[in-house]
Specification:
InterPro entries: Homeodomain-like_sf, Winged_HTH_dom. This protein is mostly helical. The protein has two domains: 2-37, no CATH class; 46-138, no CATH class. Helices cover 52% and strands 0% of the residues. It has helices spanning 8-15, 19-32, 51-62, 77-88, 94-104, 121-135. Helix 3 (51-62) crosses helix 4. The longest helix has 15 residues, at 121-135. The chain is elongated. The N and C termini lie far apart (82 Å).
Length: 139
Protein backbone atom coordinates (compact mmCIF):
# COMPACT_ATOMS: atom_id res chain seq x y z
CA UNK A 1 0.00 0.00 0.00
CA UNK A 2 2.98 2.30 0.60
CA UNK A 3 4.22 1.65 -2.94
CA UNK A 4 0.76 2.41 -4.33
CA UNK A 5 0.83 5.81 -2.62
CA UNK A 6 -2.00 5.24 -0.16
CA UNK A 7 -2.22 7.76 2.67
CA UNK A 8 -1.52 6.86 6.28
CA UNK A 9 -5.20 7.33 7.15
CA UNK A 10 -6.31 5.00 4.32
CA UNK A 11 -3.86 2.32 5.39
CA UNK A 12 -4.84 2.71 9.06
CA UNK A 13 -8.54 2.21 8.21
CA UNK A 14 -7.81 -0.75 5.93
CA UNK A 15 -5.61 -2.54 8.46
CA UNK A 16 -7.50 -1.48 11.58
CA UNK A 17 -4.71 0.31 13.42
CA UNK A 18 -4.05 3.89 14.44
CA UNK A 19 -2.41 6.34 12.05
CA UNK A 20 0.62 6.68 14.34
CA UNK A 21 1.46 3.00 13.77
CA UNK A 22 1.24 3.51 10.02
CA UNK A 23 3.54 6.57 10.25
CA UNK A 24 6.09 4.46 12.17
CA UNK A 25 5.81 1.63 9.63
CA UNK A 26 6.24 4.05 6.73
CA UNK A 27 9.41 5.48 8.29
CA UNK A 28 10.82 1.94 8.77
CA UNK A 29 9.80 1.02 5.21
CA UNK A 30 11.55 4.09 3.74
CA UNK A 31 14.75 3.29 5.65
CA UNK A 32 14.92 -0.48 5.09
CA UNK A 33 12.29 -1.57 2.58
CA UNK A 34 9.80 -4.39 2.96
CA UNK A 35 12.29 -6.64 4.75
CA UNK A 36 12.59 -4.09 7.58
CA UNK A 37 8.86 -4.48 8.28
CA UNK A 38 9.10 -8.23 8.86
CA UNK A 39 8.44 -9.49 12.37
CA UNK A 40 11.56 -10.12 14.40
CA UNK A 41 12.07 -12.55 17.23
CA UNK A 42 11.19 -11.15 20.63
CA UNK A 43 14.15 -9.65 22.39
CA UNK A 44 14.88 -10.07 26.03
CA UNK A 45 17.37 -11.38 28.45
CA UNK A 46 18.89 -14.67 27.32
CA UNK A 47 18.25 -17.65 29.60
CA UNK A 48 20.85 -18.33 32.29
CA UNK A 49 21.01 -22.03 31.38
CA UNK A 50 21.77 -23.23 27.85
CA UNK A 51 20.20 -26.38 26.43
CA UNK A 52 23.12 -28.61 27.46
CA UNK A 53 22.89 -27.37 31.06
CA UNK A 54 19.13 -27.93 31.10
CA UNK A 55 19.66 -31.52 29.96
CA UNK A 56 22.30 -31.98 32.69
CA UNK A 57 19.78 -30.73 35.27
CA UNK A 58 17.05 -32.98 33.79
CA UNK A 59 19.30 -36.03 34.20
CA UNK A 60 20.22 -35.04 37.76
CA UNK A 61 16.57 -34.54 38.76
CA UNK A 62 15.60 -37.88 37.19
CA UNK A 63 17.88 -39.63 39.68
CA UNK A 64 15.66 -38.41 42.51
CA UNK A 65 16.15 -36.17 45.50
CA UNK A 66 17.68 -38.89 47.70
CA UNK A 67 20.53 -39.31 45.20
CA UNK A 68 21.48 -35.71 46.00
CA UNK A 69 21.53 -36.18 49.77
CA UNK A 70 17.97 -35.17 50.68
CA UNK A 71 16.25 -37.44 53.19
CA UNK A 72 12.88 -37.58 51.36
CA UNK A 73 12.45 -38.22 47.65
CA UNK A 74 10.51 -34.99 47.21
CA UNK A 75 11.51 -32.03 45.02
CA UNK A 76 10.95 -28.48 46.24
CA UNK A 77 11.97 -25.27 44.50
CA UNK A 78 14.79 -24.81 47.01
CA UNK A 79 16.10 -28.33 46.46
CA UNK A 80 15.97 -28.01 42.68
CA UNK A 81 17.75 -24.66 42.93
CA UNK A 82 20.49 -26.28 45.01
CA UNK A 83 20.94 -29.06 42.43
CA UNK A 84 21.05 -26.51 39.59
CA UNK A 85 23.74 -24.56 41.43
CA UNK A 86 25.71 -27.72 42.23
CA UNK A 87 25.60 -29.05 38.64
CA UNK A 88 25.95 -25.82 36.65
CA UNK A 89 27.27 -23.18 39.03
CA UNK A 90 24.29 -20.96 38.16
CA UNK A 91 22.21 -19.53 41.00
CA UNK A 92 18.51 -19.23 40.14
CA UNK A 93 15.75 -17.45 42.04
CA UNK A 94 12.70 -19.45 43.11
CA UNK A 95 10.74 -17.88 40.22
CA UNK A 96 13.44 -18.88 37.74
CA UNK A 97 13.49 -22.44 39.12
CA UNK A 98 9.71 -22.57 38.67
CA UNK A 99 10.01 -21.38 35.04
CA UNK A 100 12.75 -23.95 34.43
CA UNK A 101 10.63 -26.78 35.82
CA UNK A 102 7.34 -25.86 34.19
CA UNK A 103 8.56 -24.23 30.98
CA UNK A 104 11.73 -25.93 29.86
CA UNK A 105 11.40 -29.30 31.61
CA UNK A 106 7.62 -29.70 31.29
CA UNK A 107 7.05 -30.59 34.95
CA UNK A 108 3.85 -29.74 36.81
CA UNK A 109 2.99 -29.13 40.43
CA UNK A 110 2.45 -32.37 42.34
CA UNK A 111 1.54 -32.33 46.01
CA UNK A 112 2.18 -35.48 48.02
CA UNK A 113 -0.71 -37.04 49.88
CA UNK A 114 -0.59 -36.34 53.57
CA UNK A 115 -0.67 -39.72 55.29
CA UNK A 116 0.75 -41.06 58.48
CA UNK A 117 3.65 -43.45 58.01
CA UNK A 118 2.06 -45.79 60.55
CA UNK A 119 -1.21 -46.03 58.56
CA UNK A 120 -2.55 -49.61 58.44
CA UNK A 121 -5.02 -50.03 55.58
CA UNK A 122 -6.22 -53.46 56.72
CA UNK A 123 -6.97 -52.17 60.24
CA UNK A 124 -8.86 -49.19 58.77
CA UNK A 125 -10.95 -51.51 56.60
CA UNK A 126 -11.69 -53.78 59.58
CA UNK A 127 -12.73 -50.77 61.74
CA UNK A 128 -15.05 -49.42 59.02
CA UNK A 129 -16.65 -52.85 58.52
CA UNK A 130 -17.09 -53.85 62.19
CA UNK A 131 -16.71 -50.93 64.57
CA UNK A 132 -18.31 -48.09 62.65
CA UNK A 133 -21.71 -49.80 62.16
CA UNK A 134 -21.74 -50.68 65.89
CA UNK A 135 -21.23 -47.07 67.04
CA UNK A 136 -23.11 -45.30 64.27
CA UNK A 137 -26.44 -43.86 65.42
CA UNK A 138 -29.60 -43.84 63.41
CA UNK A 139 -30.84 -45.90 60.48
Amino acid sequence: MFEEGASNAEIARAVGVCAESVRRWRRVWKEGGVSALRRRAATGRPPKLDDAQVEMVRAALARGARAHGFEADLWTLERVGAVVEQKTGVVLSRASVWRLLTGRLGWSLQRPERRAVERDESEIARWIAHEWPRIKKGP
